[in-house]
């Protein structure tokens, strides 16, 4: 039986949506147990919903005293809030009670909890966040999506290796790796890009060269590797453009009776499209390079996204992902 | 009478669309003359279309021998192709015959022609490309959009100043300036961002702090300042996401009879939306920090975009933009 730890207090919509998400996950799959972390008050409030699972032994309630707030400086909060939900999560995996853990944020808090609390795998200097994004060919992994602002070429190579390993677990054979750059030709970009290109070329990865942001969504590769600064900017720009297009589309539909009618007829297809483009639907992001399975869900997640994130954690716990990443650090 | 120089050979759709665009511009405004640069063969081919304007003295044909190709390395081509259309363009503004010039690309070629051929203004270490993008509040300027990959904080300050000056010419009063970063709080980002933040805070600009890519399109500021690496990535990501949404939307419309009907009813509004999001409609990008008005049009431009780019050049030539930018360099 797989056991995971889940932070009921993480994310913008906690605890309402995290509690509901956990119940949905429990109902969807019966082969795992969960250490659910929250304050005493929250457990009392949701007692009716959670108690059947507690009675059957599928949920164990673990009390914490505080939570990382959005405006907490992560490292400082890690030092000062020893009774936080993230600390409990880390204790549960470090003690071997849970095989892996998942929180819906804060991202900065999770990053610190993973790096300082769980600890880096030997040889992996910088753990990285991988985010799965949609594309014409079924999706690609952006790594590092924001964990590391200043990096060296060796770190980029590690990111690419970890990303490639992760994508294999998602069923991509020999995943192609693109280096995020400002042009396709070799020799483009700053020194970091040029030196990373060299390292990637010499590696055993399926490296396909430099890639530009405009090609990312058309499926020319499965892993898009970059430093966390670029990754963060890419991710937020993507979010900004989608939001803007959605806003303009709503505006376009409201223009006249005919456009409203058109919007109604198109609605189901448009809703699917929006869902496809919205990366909060693409599950949780793995923090790769730490000693345990550690997933970071999107802060905006509702109950369905929370459920998917939990099930993804369960799934990863049943693989030997950590052993595979460990080999990268040791090589 | 304003006189400008126009490169009939620049852009993906040259010469057909550049010639048509020039004619449209000539018809739209009668208070300027154009030095049109092309090879002898092109002038012969389009003789019938151009000759009325040549006869009336509004177009002067200037022959060149070659053109920068997409795969030319710009600096090398600048050294070797002395008879290129970009060289002629530069000669025309340097000799004082034309007050400003415009080419639809290559961007790299224009950058080199502007920086090495026309020359930097005193005190401006790095000229920068400003690109106007749509937003909820009527648009913002991204600067530097790709001219400089490695920069110093002082350069970022110059970019912000030049961008702010340019936006004033477009009618924005006291334009607000945001620093492109990975978080909104002060102290975010790498050292370049942190030091640039300090310089911008102490400047006389209307600096509103750090800005994230997701807010760019919702009009929180008029100038988004960054290094050319980030600028290029932002621009191409924007392009990629718009293209992807457009592709998915087409797919959504094709799903059934009802969605096709919906698409038809929505079509006029959607076409407007796509036009709004497509930055090739947002005119040409100024290369700021060089001694003359130098605009770089989008390579994808058709005749209407070419016309707009030409008229924009004429308009800028009638202002004292260069004097204002000169003051920045001297301060």
Total helical segments of chain A: 12
Fraction of residues in β-strands of chain A: 15-25%
Distance between the termini of chain A: 32 Å
- Class from secondary-structure proportions of chain A: alpha/beta
Number of strands of chain A: 11
The general outline of chain A is globular
Keywords, separated by commas or semicolons:
alpha/beta; 11-stranded mixed beta sheet; 48% helix; 331 residues; 12 helices; homodimer; 11 strands
Explain what you see.
The structure is a homodimer of 331-residue chains. Chain A is an alpha/beta fold and 331 residues long. Chain A has helices spanning 16-28, 40-45, 47-55, 74-80, 85-94, 107-118, 153-169, 191-202, 228-253, 257-277, 303-317, 321-330; strands spanning 2-7, 32-38, 59-63, 100-103, 128-133, 140-143, 176-180, 206-211, 223-225, 285-288, 293-296. In chain A, strands 3-2-1-4-11-10-5-6-9-7-8 form an 11-stranded mixed beta sheet, sandwiched between helices. In chain A, strand 5 (128-133) and strand 6 (140-143) form a beta hairpin. Chains A and B meet through helix 9 and helix 10 of A and helix 9 and helix 10 of B.
């Amino acid at each position: 039986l797989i056991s995971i730890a889940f932070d009921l207090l993480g994310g913008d919509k906690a605890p309402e949506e995290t509690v509901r998400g956990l119940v949905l996950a429990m109902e969807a799959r019966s082969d795992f147990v969960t250490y659910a972390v929250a304050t005493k008050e929250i457990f009392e409030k949701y007692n009716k919903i959670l108690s059947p699972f507690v009675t059957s032994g599928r949920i164990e309630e673990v009390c914490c005293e505080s939570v990382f707030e959005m405006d907490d400086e992560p490292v400082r909060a890690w030092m000062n809030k020893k009774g936080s939900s993230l600390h409990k999560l880390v204790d549960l995996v470090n003690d071997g009670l849970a095989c892996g853990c998942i929180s819906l944020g804060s991202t900065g808090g999770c990053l610190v909890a993973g790096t300082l609390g769980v600890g880096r795998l030997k040889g992996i200097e910088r753990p990285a966040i991988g985010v799965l994004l949609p594309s014409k060919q079924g999706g690609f992994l952006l790594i590092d999506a924001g964990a590391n602002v200043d990096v060296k070429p060796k770190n980029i190579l590690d990111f690419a290796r970890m990303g490639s390993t992760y994508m294999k677990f998602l069923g991509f054979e020999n995943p192609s790796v693109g280096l995020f750059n400002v042009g396709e030709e070799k020799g483009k970009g700053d020194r970091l890009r040029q030196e990373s290109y060299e390292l990637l070329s010499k590696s055993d990865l399926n490296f396909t060269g430099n890639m530009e942001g405009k090609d990312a969504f058309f499926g020319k590769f499965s892993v898009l590797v970059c430093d966390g600064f670029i990754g963060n900017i890419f991710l937020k720009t993507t979010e900004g453009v989608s939001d803007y297009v959605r806003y303009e589309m709503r505006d376009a539909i409201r223009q006249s009776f005919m456009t409203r009618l058109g919007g109604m007829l198109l609605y189901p297809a448009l809703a699917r499209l929006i869902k496809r483009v919205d990366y909060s639907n693409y599950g949780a992001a793995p923090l790769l390079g730490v000693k345990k399975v550690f997933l970071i869900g999107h802060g905006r997640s509702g109950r369905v996204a929370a459920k998917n994130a939990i099930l993804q954690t369960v799934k990863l716990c049943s693989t030997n992902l950590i052993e595979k990443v460990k080999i990268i650090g040791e090589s």
